[in-house]
Structure formats: structure tokens, C-alpha cells
Design a protein that fits this description.
356 residues, 7-stranded mixed beta sheet, 12 strands, 40% helix, globular
Length: 356
Amino acid sequence: MIRENYNVLGVMSGTSLDGVDLAHIIFNYQNGIWSYNVVECQTVAYSNVWVERLKEAVGYTKENLGKLNDEYTLLLSGIVKTFIEDNAIKGLDAICSHGHTILHQPQNGFTLQIGNKRELAKNTGITTVCDFRVQDVQMGGQGAPLVPIGDRLLFSGYSYCLNLGGFSNISFEDNGKRVAFDICAVNTVLNYYADKLGLPYDDGGKIAAKGMLVAEIYAELNELEFYKKAYPKSLGFEYVKEVLLPLMEKYDAEVEDKLHTFTMHVAKQLADVINALPPGKLLVTGGGAYNVFLLNCMQEFMPDTAIVVPDDKTIQYKEALIFGLLGVLKLRGEVNVLSSVTGAVGDHSSGVVFGV
């Protein structure tokens, strides 16, 4: 499938449980340079029932996980078909789908993204490229992050690419080698506390901005062992459930104060990493790019960094866009996972291709 133009659908579901991101993308490859156009994009929110199921799934038995996988694949198939029909999309080369991460335990040689079943191709009638993480874990890697190859090929005009989603991760070039790793949890924790106030998220960080710093929580968070580890390293929802929330719940503080404290903690951890690098342009994407309070805290902590927040499509759909690119690279038989960022034994072309 080596040619200049590709018409694909990038599909992504993140740990913040906002919903399924879909992006219809036209990729163009000329003179060794990739470019793209995001034609249509949409986030389809999960029902409350699905949000709860996806939250609880980390504790499911193998049998219940299998059932969940089947039902989620059916849900995802319906979402994809409706998006294609509503936008009258024709001639797709492939659906490039990340699925939804339920378990991520690279230290145990295991990662599970549901929705990556052959039925996605069967139900939609379109070639599907999916399950991008498993091969990397089998090759001794973290199975994450996968986005850096897209940062290198599509966003080379920035010194650093930072995504603020359920977790924060950064990607940059270091002596010709791409470096990337998770820094800390973000919306997985902030949304948990917003939910306690009956809200899906803290809009613009306005509630956090009104809170007060709880010094004890702030100090204990900043001493967590994960931050002292060398990269490559990655985080999963298990870490939030087993480490972060128990730590924060030990303290009797107002929700607003916990939101404020955790936001300050995020800004500090980001600054600790970025301030150790040469000054440059920092591209910020993901839902956290709309958190004004967080961005203000970041700028305060890293005054020498030019923080760039791009257009809405790039903020919201960068990961869906890049998983579209990963799928295209797989179809071309080209490297789409960098061992320099995952720790695998070598660069490789990851993913499973299901024909119709």
C-alpha cells in the first residue's frame, strides 16, 4: 500500500474517559515529508453506564473482561459506522483504532486495549488496523508512548510536544534520538474530584483556582518514587487507583483544595522535566490545554518556555490523528514504534491488520 495519499479514520479512547475521538484524515507523503488534513472530527461521549464499566474493568475477572471486550467492540463499531454515515465519508483505506486501555502492566509483559477485535472490521466493512501496543510489550517495551513517531513526522516545528490528557507525556529529539515518557497523572485525578462536585470536569480549572494549597498533600505527591525513575517509563490507571487516590484520600480537605493542590503538583512535575531542557517552543495538546489555571501555573513555573496552544482540532484530536498515521505506517510496512521511547529491543512496525 505504498503511495502518496491515504484516506483513513483515526479512532482513540483515552484514560480520561471523555469518550471516543474520531478524526477523518487525509495523509499526504511527498519528498519524504508527511502532511495531513483533518477533514471531520467528533468526540462521542460515553453513557454513564459505560463510564462506570470502564472504570471498574481494572478489577474484572478474565471471563468478564472477555465479555466487556465483545460488547465494547460492538459499541465502537456502531460509533464508527454512525460517524461515517453522518459525514458521508467515502473510499476509506482503513480504520486505525487504538481501542480503550483497561490494563497496562508492561512490567508483567501484559497490556490490554479492548475493542481491537476482528469484528470491528467485519461490522464496518472496512480494513482495520489496531492493537498497536501488544507487540511492543512482547518485545520488552513499555507499550507506550506511541505518539512520538507522529510528533517527529508531523510536528517537527516544535522543540517539545506535551500532551495533557488522563496522563501527561512529553516527546522531543535528543541528539537525533526521539525521547518520550509519561510525566504524571492529570485528568484522571482532576476529573475524579470534579465528579465529587457533580461535574464531568473542572471547566478551565476555575474551581481549582479558588482552592488553597494543602502543603502536606503537595509535599507527599512530589516525593513519589515514580518521579525519580529514569525514562522510558509510563503510567496506567492502576497507578491512580493504587497510589494517587489513596494518598490524597488520607487527608480531610475540601474538594476545591485537592483540585488546587493536584494542579499545582502537575505544574511542578512538568516544570521539573521541562526546565532541565534547553529553552524552546512547547506544543500543548489534550484536554488539559483548556485548563487555564494549569497553564498559568505551568508558565509561572517555567518562565523561559514558550507555551503554544494550537487550534481546537489539534488540541482535541492529535492522538486520533497520530493513531491514523500509525495505521498508515503499518500498512506501508514502516516503523511506527520507536524503541528509544518504549524501551523495546528495536524499532518496529506494530499493529494488527484485519481485512474484510
